[in-house]
Amino acid sequence: MNAKKQLSKLYIVGVFLIVGGFLALLFSVFTLWAQPAAAAERLVTTTADSGPGSLRQVLADAQAGDTITFDLTYPAEILLSQTEEILIDKNLTITGPGADLLTIKTSNYEGIGARIFKIAAGTVVTISDLTFANAGGYGTLARQGGAIYNAGSLTLIRCTFTNNASQEGGAIYNEGTLTLSHSLVSNNVGGEAYHDGDVYGAGVYNSMNGTGVIEYTTIDGNGPDQWFDPGGEYELFGGGIYNLGALEVRYSTIEYNQGYEGAGIYNQVNSVLTLTHSTVANNYAQLEIVDPDTWDTTYEGYGGGIHNSGQLTALNSTLYANSAYQDGGGIHNWWGASLSLEHVTIGNNYAGSRGNGEGGGLWADGAVSLKNSVLAENSADQNPDCASGGAAFISEDYNLVETLGNCAISNAGNDRLDWAITLFFHRFAANGGPTDTYAPYTNSILVNSIPITNCTTITDQRGVPRPQNNPNDIEACDIGAYETATMGWDGDGGDGSWLNDTNWTWDVRPGMGDVAHLGSTTPVTVTYDETQETTSVGFINLTGSGVTLQQAGYVRLEHNYTQSAGTFNGDPTDEMALGTFSLSGGLFHAPGEMRLSGNFLHNGGVFEANGGELVFMFSPTQTISGDNIFYDLTIGKWAVDSTVDASSSTLIVTNQLTVTKGIFRSASSYHHVQIEVEGTLELSGDITVSGDWINNGAVITNGHIISFTGTGPQILQETRVVSGTGTVRFLDDGRGGGVLVDANGQGLGQVTVTERLNADCTTEAGEVFGRCFDIETENAPGSGVTLTFLFYADEIPAGQSCDASEVYHWNGSAWEAMTRDSSYGSDGRMCGSEPYSIRVTGVTDFSPFVLKSDGVPSGEPAGEHTVYLPLVLR
After folding, report:
1. Which of 785, 708, 693, 695 has the alpha carbon at shortest distance from 743?
2. Looking at the domain assignment, is residue 810 inside a domain?
3. pLDDT, tens digit (0-9, with 9 covering 90-100), for 32-89
C-alpha cells in the first residue's frame, strides 16, 4: 500500500470518529433535555389555606410523581376554604404524620364546608396518615363525596374520615378505582334530602363505574343526618356502604351504622359485592316518616346488616346483632338477587317491632346458597333465623339452622335443621385477628362437625388454618366463621404483649374457645394485658419452665387454667375468672380475686395466696384438692347455690371464710379465721376456729365443731335440728335466737345432736311427744352458762294449741318442763298466728342433755315441722 492511500484511509477514519463523537454528544444533550424532572419531596409548612407553604399552593406547584409531606407543629389542623375544593390532576403521593396528628377540614362544623379533594380521571394518587373532617355539604355544594371524590386510581392508607356529609358518599364517592386500607370511616352522614329525596352511602359510595377494595378498615357509626323530613320521605340506602359497582370488603368491620335499607351495606341491582373475613355488626335499619299535616309517624326498615339486590358472596364472615324494623335483621336478600354464604356465622340479629317482622337472621326472596354456615340465636316476630319470601334455598352441606321457619332448603342431607340444642355461642368479642368474632362454646355442636373432606376454605375469619383438632382431638372443621384452635406463644412481636397478634402462632392471639399454650424453656416474660373490654381466652396451658406470665389486666378464661411449670405473677389489685384451676408444678402467685366456676386442683407446685380471695361461683359440686393456705375463701359470692367439697384436703384460711349461699364440705382445720356464713356451710369433718365465727343464716351438717377460742362472741344465731345423727343446722329467720354464754370464751367442744324416733320420746307417764333430740357436748360448760332453745312449728297441729305446748328436758331420771322465757312473748310463746314458736331457758349443767317438745304431734314425719335450737356462746 502506498503512503497516499494509507493517509487517505486514516483521514476517512478520523472524519468518522469526529462526526460520531459529535453525534453522540448531541444525542446525550437531547436525551437529558427530553427527560422529566426527578420526583421531588415537597413540604407543607403552614396550616393556612393559601400562600407559600400551604397545602393548596404546594399541590398546585407539585409535579407528577412528587411526594407531599408536612412540617408542622403537632397536633395540627388545616382549615381550607368552605367554597373551593382542591383538584388533584397529577400522580402524587401525600404522606401525613399520622391521622391522630393532622386533620384537614373545610369547616369547624360538621359537614357544612366544601369537599376537600377531587381526584381527576387518569391520575394515580396515594394518601396516607391523615384525618379528613367536617367537609361536604348539602344541596349541590358537595353532592358526591363529602371529603373526597375519586375518578382516578386512589389508595388511602391509615386515614380517618369523620363528620363529613354528602348526599352520595358522606365521606368518599368512588367513580374510579379505590383501595381503602387500615382506615376508619366514622360518624359521617348522608346529608339532607329535601322533600322526598334519597340519600346513598353515608360512609362510602361506590358508583356503577367504580371498582373498590376495602380492607382492614372500620366503617362505624355512619347514618342519616335526620330520620325524617316533614316535607316528605327521607330515605338513606346504605348507612355504611352503598355499592353500585364491583366492591370487595375484606378483613374489615362494618358496625353501628344506620339507614332505611342496608344499614350496614346496600348492594344494588347488577352490583357485585364480595365480603370475606369481615364482620357486620350492630347496624340498625329504620326509617321514621312523619306526616307534615297530621304529624302521624310510621316506620319502615329492611336489612339491618346487609340489603342485597345484586350478587353477594360472603365467606368467613360474621353478622351479629344487626336489627331491622321490619324484615331481614342480618341480611335482606331481595327478589332477583343471589346470595352465597360459606363459613358464615349469622347470630343474635333481630327483625320486627310491629308484630310482623320476619327473618331475624336472614330474609330472602332471591336465591340463596349455604355451605358450612350457621343461623342461630336470632330473633324476630316470626321465623327468627330464616324467613322466605319465595326464595330457593340450596344447601352445599353442613349447615346449622336453629329454627328453619318457612325456609325450604334442598339437598340438606348433612344439615342440622330445627336444632333443639341451643348451646351455640360464647360471646361476641375480640378473639384475635383484625375483627371481632362470635366464638362457639368448646362443647358446641358447631365444633368439629364438618368432615375434613368438606373443609374447602383454608383459614377461618381470623386467619387460623382449617382444620384444627383442638380441643376434642378430632380432625374436622367447625361450622361458621370461627375455628377453635391451640395458639402457641412464639414471641415474634418482640414486645411480650399477650394482645399482640404477632406474638402467637399464625399471628392470631387466642380467643374464647381457644387454647393458649406457653411452653418456652427459654426465659421469657409474657404480659397478660387484657381488659374486660377486650376479650377473654378459652384455656391457658403454662408448661414452659422459662415462662413468667405476668398479669397486667383482667384475666378472663372461659374454661380452664393448667400449670405444670413456670411462674404466674398475679396482680393483687386485679381479678381472674376461670373454670377449673389445676396446678401441678411451678409457682402461682394468686391475683386479688380468683373466681372459679369449676374446681381447684392442687397436686404439685406452689400456690401462694398473695393476699387474694378465692371465690367459688357455681354448682354442682366443686372440689378443692391438695393442701392449701388461702387468705380469703368465699363460696356463693354472687348468691349462686354452690357446693364445695374439700373433704380430702388440709386447708388453712388466714383471714376469712365466707359462705353467702351454698354448702362447704371440709375435713380440715382453719386457723386465725373470721368465718362469716350467710348461706349453707356443710362440714364433713372437724373444724377448729381460732378466730371469730359469725353465722348469719347458715346450715351446718354432718360435722363436728371442735372448739371456739376466739376473743369475740361466738354466735350461732338459730340452730335448727333436723332428722338424722350428727346434724346441726343454723338459721336466722328473723325470729330472734337464744344465747349460750361463757364469759371466758370456753367452748362446748364437739356438739352432737341426734333426733330420736317418736317411740323413744315417751314420758314416764307414757305420753308420746312429736319430736325429741339428744344433745351431747364434749366439754361441760363453764359457770354461768345459760342454754336457751327456740322451738318453732310451721303450723299449729290439729288438736293442739299454742298454750298447751311445752318443752321438756331429761334430767337423767325424768322429763322436766323447761321454764319459758318471758322475754319472748308474754309467756315464752309466740301465739296467735302461724307459724308459732316457744322459747325456753334453764339448763346450766348438761352432758349429755336430752330435749323434747310436744309442740309437734306424735306421728308427724320428720321435716314436716321444724324445731330450732338457737345456741350462742359468750
Report:
1. 785
2. no
3. 444 556 789 999 999 999 999 999 999 999 999 999 999 999 999 999 988 889 999 9
Torsions phi, psi for 22 (to 5 deg)? -65, -40
Asked if residue 454 and residue 508 are part of one domain, the reply reads: no
Mean pLDDT over residues 699-727, rounded?
37
The chain-wide mean pLDDT, for the chain, equals 78
Claim to verify: residue 456 and residue 512 sit in the same structural domain: no
Domain region containing 268: 214-228+248-484
Q: How far apart are CA 618 and CA 635, in angstroms?
A: 9
Distance of alpha carbon 729 from alpha carbon 703, whole angstroms: 10
Residues 802 and 796: beta-carbon distance below 8 Å:
yes
Number of domains in the chain: 3
Do 475 and 403 have their domain in common?
yes
Asked if residue 413 belongs to a domain, the reply is yes
Sign of CA dihedral 807, 809, 814, 820: negative
If we measure between CA atoms, which residue out of 434, 429, 427 comes closest to residue 218?
434
Q: What is the pTM of this model?
A: 0.77
pLDDT at 733 over 80: no
At residue 474, what is the residue type?
I
Q: What cell numbers appear for 499 in the block? A: 394482645
Rg (CA), the chain: 39
Instruction: With H, G, I as helix, E, B as strand and everything else as coil, classify residue 547.
Output: strand
Q: Are residues 77 and 146 in the same domain?
A: yes
Number of H helices, E strands in the chain: 2, 85
Asked if pLDDT for residue 677 goes beyond 50, the answer is: yes
For residues 269 and 362, membership in a common domain is answered with: yes
Across 531-557, average pLDDT? 87
Q: Which of 588, 611, 634 is the last residue of a domain?
A: 611
